[in-house]
Amino acid sequence: MRFYLQKIVFYVVALWAAVTLNFLIPRLMPGNPVDIMIAKMGAAGQPITAGTRHALEVELGGSGGSLIQQYGAYIVNLLHGNLGISLTNFPEKVTTVIGQALPWTIALVGMATIISFILGIGLGMLAGWKRGSWLDNLIPVTTMFQAVPYFWLALILVLVLTRVLSLFPYAGGYNVATTVPGLSFQFIGSALYYGFLPAVTIVISSVGGWMLGMRNMMVATLSEDYIVTAEAKGLKPSRVRMTYAARNAVLPSLSGFAISLGFVVAGSIVTEQVFSYPGIGQLLFTAVSNDDYALMQGVFLVISLSVLAANLVVDVLYGLIDPRTRARS
Amino acid sequence: MTSTLSVTDAAAPATTGGTRSFARLLPSSSPKLIVGLIIAGVVIVWGIVGPLLVGDPHAISTNAFAPPGPEHWLGTTQVGQDVWAQIAYGTRGSLVIGFVVGLLATVLSAFFGVLGAYIGGVIDEGFALFTNVVLVIPGLPLVIVIGNYVPQNQRGLFLIAVVLAITSWAGSARVLRSVTLSLRNRDYVAASKVSGEKTWRVLAVEILPNLIPVMASQFVFAIIFAILGEAGLSFLGLGANNSFTLGTILFQAYNDLALTQGAWWWFVPPGLVIALFGCALSLINFSIDEIINPKLRNQTRASRKAWGLTADQIQRLEKEDIK
Amino acid sequence: MTITRKRLLFGAAAVAASAALALTGCTSGSNGNSSKAGGTTSVTLFSGQVGNFTENFNPLNNTGAYLQPTNGVIYEPLFYYNKAKAGKPVPLLGTSYSWNTDGTELTVKVRQGVKWSDGSAETTDDVVYSLNLVSNNPGLNTSGTEWVAKKTAADTVVIDFPTTSFTLEPQILGNEPIVPQKIWKNISDPTKVTNDKPVGTGPYELKSFTPQSFVLEKNPHYWGTGDNAPKVDQVRYVSLANADAATSALEAGQTDYMGAFLPTLKSIMSKHKNLSYSNSPQATTALFTCANVDLGCTGPQTDPAVRQALYNAMDRTQLDKQAAAGFSAPASSSLLLNTVNKSQITDPSYLEVPQTANVSKAKSTLEADGWKLNSDGYYAKDGQELDLTVNVVSGWTDYDTICQLLQGQFKAAGIKLAVNQMAQNAWSQAESTGKFEMSMNSINMGVSSDPYYQYSAYLASSATAKVGTPAPSTNTSRYSNAAVDAAIKQLATTNDDSAKQAAYKTIQDQIVKDMPYVPIYVNSALAEYNNSRATGWPTQDNQYAFPLPWGGNWGVGIVLKTIRPVK
């Protein structure tokens, strides 16, 4: 019981911390949306007169009241699912703006993470099973890719595959000239084609981690007594590998996987910039550089919630598959 | 993160009682380690000495986008600055960030992970809760926002390092906590407690030495993380102010259309330096891993032979493997 | 379950995916950019949009968050004021206008026979409604003056002002979109509606929208005929994340019309013969100084002699070459443009700022003011070294480069310059509240090329505030000069050219002496065109409209209805 109580306290506190941080950070930031707007209007040749500031303040609405009052209003709005109005996309609701960007990020980074995980676990298992094989010796190489800045890798890929060889498009989520979003074969094909390069970048730079983790766990598991027993009993090596070793070795990776799924939303900010990908990362970047507090908060909230949700999944999963977790209480 | 996680469970059984020679703590001199140390050493020495040998990285000339040549070993930028000189300064900047973050994150994680777990009770619960909460707050977005908040003229290298450290210690702390928890209940720790050793002495003499390999590995990882994190932040234009790092060079190159100009000499080398250094640290970490986790060392085919398998059986096993 | 099967399955999926890719690759290659898909002609426009488009076609709100074609392409004002060249306003929904002598009553003849894009008639009532809608809504009215428009004849609107308001002319005639009364009278808050089915009088109307791209098509009911009617069937708007992607798109022939500063433009043009560009330098890049001690400015730059020294110590030829890739134009110390505003610059010596550094003049100015060189090679006065800090947005590479170059140039004149790169929001806040010494920014033309708008926004006391309080307009230098204020007031209340000219002279004499903004150069404004699908784009010599496809530029509508498809 104590175990569950601890978990509940954790989720309550984490949620509160995320929400409160979300409230505070934009209010601690410098700058003021009206200033940014005036600077932008000036650059676009719009007239700036003495009345402009006043009109903008009226139009954008000030944040009145003490900090406590604002906090109260913020929580109430949050409970109603009202994240406010995005300034850069005025007068569109933050929820709408995020709703447009989210599917792109989830599809791209989610798919890439899953592919990377499956590939890494599979290869890691084989490398751990056959220590010293060529595959095992490949591990340091793949780990090296992890140490490469992934946006740099993306730049190199862009240079070679779109500039020199013209194999892939240079930017965007799909071919806007020939397809419209929908469940058509053409659109999905186009989206896959446009997402291929960003996805490859993410897979290349993350597969090494999964591989190394799985390989090390596999090696460690293989020296457990029950493996020795299984081999001594004369079980088929493939059975020992899959049912006895891999199954137990994959546990820590699985929790890592669930957590990294939670970070899907946050994980691709820079990649999205390089590929002009219409996802959450670009949204957050635009929000920060334009002082779009409401949008920033919204993106932050989505990211925090998805990470928390992933943690919840891990906890539940672990409770189910590893009885020791529950026994600890 | 994956590697760190695997370290958790692996580290727990890594204990010895009575006599242990200090030599076992040192990495065995595998080729991986030697290569790693050499590359890392070269990069570090270059970061220290390089800026003394090159010219002013800010100096602008009319020789824009010049390809590598005798005058500019790595060519020039859009405003004719020497890329070679910038990389020397950038390497230094990135290394400073890496080491500062590595140190800070290690200290923070040791404080919250080890101390809490050792004292136990409410403090442990509190620390663990705090660690877990920090762990789920998304790092990069937070760094972006904090980086933006900090007064511009103070947004130097050191500040970026502090911000990166604040968002990167929690994972390590969680690992350290679980290792400490398992160590705390060992017989020899209990024995030294019973024999009346002071708390700090038990912590320093009996527990910390066992944590050193784990912390070393975490330190190395934190350096890689920090250098990559800083590069990402700078690439978005939110990095350190008025100072060169490899990330700010990449940012400038990308912003000034080095890519469309085909000026590979501007954006390939900075990334390569990061990759090389990160790779070297990874190699070093492999060796540390083997200390933490003896099983990674002894479970080779030779040991399988020791189980008494005949050459025939091994061959059969190998065939199975290939399938 | 074995790994073998899993891998096989995964392999199969990968093959299927790549087959799909190959297929789409082919299709996009063959007709992706064709201008005549199914007989319709089409051009693609990149407006500078980064990230997703928001479906917002509200032409009225001030935030500039509406989509680019809203103003000028879908909705039209009464007249078009071309900022790229001197001349009379172009009649659109209005045909002529006149002021009464004291500038309180503006009479406008309204074009008849115009139809909304839904086919219904646009009337003088719609014009009256639109003008009053803005006047009566504090969130929309940026002028600070309320006016009343009324219909006096079937084709005549008279607008009454409480005071002399000559200067509101381009704002009302050239910057207020005319919207249909039947739709907007039902909208409760015109600042907060997204108006996703826009009905306007412009040459194009919305065809389809997705957050990644949207398409406009020719408005079949457009009032213009012949050369004055749109000829290209469709216009597609796309978004690209950065200059790098924009360059690739231009070179690959995937955009026909865009406005981006590409430092390598000349080499791109020489490689691709079907591309052309125009440059419409318009915004004067300057060192903004916090100049006024009385309003709380501190630092050496509050001394006019220091500002004069900065002015003379600049080697602008080098700045143009290395920061602006040679695309900038010489600035005028009057802060006006020596192209469009040439006749309003009152002294030949104000026409062009010195293009090379005059170090000895800079030094003698300082020495005459009591500054003395110290042992470090910098000037000092009363024990205080001549040490200035300039704020610049990090990532605005041309400005960053200027600052780096100025560091060296000023050093030669014994002035120490520290460069403070900062994020845009922090930079704009520092400037707006006056908490800066110097700031790299640009002086922008207002709603038209009439110098009044620039001078009143950047020099009037009413446009500034004490340090610590945000400036109500863009006079961030805190400049305050009674003679200048009087002259600006004179400009606002007269329509007489000689009176205006005298006022210009007063203002220009004062600011050339006081130098609150140290002009550097007139920044380039490059627009790029692809001539293989459509021709008739603006050229360097024929800028029949201000060509940059940015939000808020009414000229884009003129450009889009002028171009014609390549046969």
Automatic annotation (TrEMBL), chain A:
Pfam name, any one: BPD_transp_1
Domain ABC transmembrane type-1: 102-318
Superkingdom, taxonomy of origin: Bacteria
Nucleotide-binding in keyword set: no
Keyword flag Cell wall biogenesis/degradation: no
Keywords: Membrane, Transmembrane, Transmembrane helix, Transport
Membrane topology: Multi-pass membrane protein
Ranges annotated as spanning the membrane: 7-25, 101-129, 150-171, 191-212, 249-270, 299-321
Subcellular location: Cell membrane; Membrane
PANTHER family reported for this sequence: OLIGOPEPTIDE TRANSPORT SYSTEM PERMEASE PROTEIN
Family the UniProt entry places it in: Belongs to the binding-protein-dependent transport system permease family.
Name of protein: ABC transporter permease
Automatic annotation (TrEMBL), chain B:
Chain segments annotated as transmembrane: 33-54, 95-121, 127-150, 157-176, 207-228, 235-254, 266-288
Signal peptide segment: none
Topology relative to the membrane: Multi-pass membrane protein
Subcellular localization(s) per the UniProt record: Cell membrane
Alphabetized PROSITE patterns for the sequence: ABC_TM1
Stored SUPFAM superfamilies: MetI-like
Pfam families given in the database record: BPD_transp_1
Ranges for domain ABC transmembrane type-1: 95-285
Keywords assigned by UniProt, alphabetized: Cell membrane, Membrane, Transmembrane, Transmembrane helix, Transport
Coiled coil feature spans: none
Family of this protein: Belongs to the binding-protein-dependent transport system permease family.
Stated name of the protein: ABC transmembrane type-1 domain-containing protein
From TrEMBL, chain C:
Protein name, entry field: ABC transporter substrate-binding protein
Signal peptide location: 1-22
Domain of life: Bacteria
Domain spans labelled Solute-binding protein family: 88-462
Alphabetical list of Gene3D superfamilies matching this protein: Dipeptide-binding Protein, Domain 1, Dipeptide-binding Protein, Domain 3, Periplasmic binding protein-like II
Keywords: Signal
InterPro entries referenced in this protein's UniProt entry, alphabetically: Peptide/Ni-bd, SBP_5, SBP_5_dom, TAT_signal
